[in-house]
Amino acid sequence: MTTRNRIYLIGFSGAGKSAVGRSTARLLGWRFEDADERIVERAGKPVERVFAEDGEPAFRELERATIAEFAREEHVVVSTGAGSVMHDQSLGGMLSSGLVVALEARPETVYRRLSHIAELDGAEAMTRPMLQSDDPLGRIESLKRERQWAYAHAHWTVHTDDLSIEQAALEVVRAWRRLGAPSAWEDDPDFAATVRLEQGAYPVFVGWDSLEDQLGRRLAQMGLAGRAFIVCDSNVVHPYGRAAQRSLHAAGIEMGLFTFPAGEASKNLATATVLYEWLAERRAERRDAIVAVGGGVVGDLAGYVAATFLRGIRVVQVPTSLTAMVDSSIGGKTGVDLPVAKNMVGAFHHPAMVLTDVSALRTLPERALREGWAEAVKHGLALEAGLVDLYEEHADALQSLDPELTTRAVAWNAAVKARMVSADEREMSGLRQLLNYGHTIGHGLEAAAGYDAYLHGEAVAIGMTGAARLGMLEGVTPPGLVERQASLIARFGLPSAYMGVEPEAILEAMSRDKKTTAGQISWVLLDGVGSSRTHRGIAPERVARVVRELGA
């Protein structure tokens, strides 16, 4: 999330967005812009006429394009329309390109402010449909309830009921200084993204040949006061576990090294218990840190142990697989598997830092490298159209691990993941669920196959194939996009069908998925390149048909 140069104010009518926005801009020395005024300029007619003559979809597209314009402008405070947050692309554009601050006010306050038009809104306030209702206060309460979930996406909320315009503006500036002002690490040449959370932020660094040179130095810079306990599996202890040891030694940091057998079969409570006991024997303390060096299994297991040992100690993620670099190392989701399903026991525990050395991909087996591209392709298809263009144009160079292009692709993916995590830290709003494109069928396939027949990315590629077909049957995903996705999956050497697994076993595993609520699965479906939404209530018969057709 790039927040240093722009602030978006969202909120219900009467919350004070225009007045507070102007005051905030004055305090920061920035420009103030009103999104509706920009829309009127683009359309050449008032908002009311756009709605009446062109319809709401046309207005929302103008709104989305206007937000995209502001995302390219510098040092600007934007007052947005009250309903702009109800459009996923407009909301996502704001969350990804600026600091989003919600101005909140009680319904009674809104009614009072809209009724006393001279204070905030000018003469047009009396024409608002809400005030023409037989029960205007009830109408305001109803509309606020409908939109509250969207306002909750904001990075910061200011309750304006008892604040003056200047006081509210000062609170917005305080939020910017805490969350949006440049962080110390943002001028670092390897800086890729910042994950901004309610309780703070952490950086993601992406470089080439950077592990041994940077790990110890960066841990010292972040103020590690205790020891560092490196956790890795048998596949990466040489050379990356040892490189981490040398880096920590050079920085004067005391360390230990724990290694466990590589593979998904080790990501369980039994291995976690062995690691707990190992840490206890060494009298690990809360001031210490776990350093997870490896792929997704290492990151998930070490992160889960860090979340739960001594009720939580710091963890640093050092991903060495492509899947971990672009996805699992960022976002704080940790966990272990149960026999019945993947990642059923876990916790949100964000790292203090993510340090990615892209050159580690040179030692990955070819199959493991291919499967990692599935998560990268997923990010492009579901969230970032520019990534799809990059993959289609440079697929061969990326698969050959061209240092510049591959580092660029990994850093871009990290920024996409960081953006979504910052917007939906604990998967409460639904935005972060878009990262699960392809995972519903994919997780079901992994569980049904016993976690050893298919690598995670291979299962996700098959899952994306199924989700695209399902989206086309639902009339959501354009057929041309289904073909484009299929071509991209094939170009990266990924599978689009499964073998040797009973479709009923996959469907049964899917029914136990974490994304299932009241027996209904939440599906992420594409509605355009780089655009996706969640859908519920898809007929089980249609799902079963698609899953069966995926069998080779």
Notes on the structure:
The longest helix is centred in the last third of the chain and has 21 residues, at 403-423. The model is unreliable at 117-127 (pLDDT under 50). The protein has a seven-stranded mixed sheet, sandwiched between helices. A five-stranded parallel sheet has the order 2-3-1-4-5, sandwiched between helices. It has helices spanning 17-28, 35-43, 47-54, 56-70, 88-97, 107-115, 129-132, 136-151, 165-180, 211-221, 237-250, 269-281, 296-308, 322-328, 366-383, 385-399, 403-423, 439-448, 456-473, 479-491, 503-511, 540-549, and strands spanning 6-10, 31-34, 76-79, 99-104, 156-159, 191-197, 200-207, 228-233, 255-260, 289-294, 314-319, 333-338, 341-348, 353-357, 516-517, 520-521, 523-528, 531-535. Helices cover 49% and strands 17% of the residues. The protein has 552 residues and is an alpha/beta fold.
List descriptors.
single chain, 552 residues, alpha/beta, seven-stranded mixed beta sheet, 22 helices, 18 strands, 49% helix
The profile of the biggest β sheet is: 7 strands, mixed
Strand order of the largest sheet: 6-7-14-11-10-8-9
Shape: globular
Radius of gyration: 25 Å
Q: Please report which band the strand proportion falls in: under 5%, 5-15%, 15-25%, 25-35%, 35-45% or over 45%.
A: 15-25%
Number of helices: 22
Query: What structural class results from the helix and strand content?
Result: alpha/beta
Percent helix, as a range, is 40-55%
Q: What are the low-pLDDT stretches, counting only 5+ consecutive residues below 50?
A: 117-127
N- and C-termini, Cα separation: 41 Å
- Average pLDDT confidence is 89
Number of strands: 18
